[in-house]
Amino acid sequence: MKRHFILTAGLFLLLLLSNCGTARRGVPMFDPVNLENQALAQGEKVYMSYCQMCHPGGTAGLGPAINNKPLPGFLIKYQVRHGIGMMPAFKEDAISDKELDNLVAYLRVLRKSKDKELM
Ligand code: HEC
Fold first, then answer.
1. Topology of domain 36-118, per CATH?
2. Distances (CA, A) of 115 to 6, 76, 112
3. Which residue lies with its CA nearest to atom 43 of ligand 1?
4. Is the CB of 52 under 6 A from ligand 1?
5. Is residue 66 within 6 Å of ligand 1 at its C-beta?
6. Cβ distance 74 to 31 under 8 Å?
7. 89: which of 13, 32, 76, 83 fits an S-S bond (Cβ 3.0–4.6 Å)?
8. Distance in angstroms (rounded) separating the CA atoms of residues 110 and 80
9. Does the beta carbon of 79 lie inside 6 Å of ligand 1?
10. SS3 content of the chain, % helix, strand, coil (to 5)
11. Ligand 1: does its nearest atom lie under 6 Å from the Cβ of 55?
C-alpha cells in the first residue's frame, strides 16, 4: 500500500515536471540573431584580411580611395574578381560569393561613415 502511494506520488511529480517543460517550450532561449550585423562583421573581416593593406579604412594607400565615390556593387565585385590594373584578383577560393556580398555591404558602410565625417 505504501509502495503504491510512492509510485503514484512519483508519477504525479513526473507529470508536473513534464508539464513545466511544455509550458516553457514557446519561450525563446536566445535573443534573435541580428543577421545584418553578422553580414557586416564578416564583410569587415574579409576587408581586413584582403583589402586593408592597400585601401586603409577605405582611403588611398597603395590603391586609390574607395570610400569617396558611389561605386556600384557589381563594379566592386568585378574589380575584386578580376583585379584591374595593379590590383591583384581574388578568386572564390580566397573570397566566396557570400563573403563578397558582405564585403560590398561593408564598403557601403565605410562610405556612409565617411560622408558623416564631412558634415
Ligand atoms: C596589393 C594592393 C591591393 C589590394 C590588396 C587590394 N587593392 Fe583594390 N586597388 C589597388 C590598386 C592599385 C587599384 C587601382 C587599379 C587600377 O585602376 O590600376 C585598386 C582599385 C580598386 C577599386 C576601384 C577603385 C576605382 O576608383 O575605380 C576597388 C573598388 C577596389 N580596388 C577594391 C578592393 C577590394 C574590395 C579589395 C579587397 C578584396 C582590394 N581592393 C584589395 C590595390 C589593391
1. Cytochrome Bc1 Complex; Chain D, domain 2 (1.10.760)
2. 73, 19, 5
3. 87
4. no
5. yes
6. no
7. 83
8. 17
9. yes
10. 60, 0, 40
11. yes
* pTM, 2 dp: 0.77
Regarding the beta carbon of 64 and ligand 1, being less than 6 Å apart is answered yes
Cα distance between residue 114 and residue 10, in whole Å: 67
pLDDT, tens digit, for every residue of 20-56?
555 556 655 555 567 788 999 999 999 999 999 999 9
What digits encode the pLDDT tens for the residues 62-97?
A: 999 999 998 999 999 999 999 999 999 999 999 999
Say how many C-beta atoms besides its own lie within 10 A of residue 93's C-beta: 6
How many Å lie between the centroid of ligand 1 and the Cα of residue 74? 14
Average confidence (pLDDT) over 5-16: 68
* Residue among 114, 88, 97, 117 at smallest CA distance from 42: 97
Is the C-beta atom of 72 inside 6 A of ligand 1? no
Give me 1's grid cell. 500500500
What does the domain layout of the chain look like in residue ranges?
36-118
Measure 87 CA to ligand 1 centroid, in angstroms. Answer: 5
